[in-house]
Amino acid sequence: MEVGTVLDWVQTYKEMLVGIGSAIVAFISALSARGETRRQRKLQTESLRQSIDAASLDWGNAAIDALARSAMFARTRNMQPNDGAFFANKANLLVAISTLVDRGRMFFPNYNPQTKGAEKEGAYRGHRPPILDALMWTYHELEALTREGGPSSEDSGAFIDECRRLLVSELQAHLDPRRKNEVVERYEDQESDDRRDAIGKSDALKQKLAARRPDFKFGKDAQPVSQP
Question: Across all residues in the chain, what is the average pLDDT?
Answer without folding.
Answer: 76
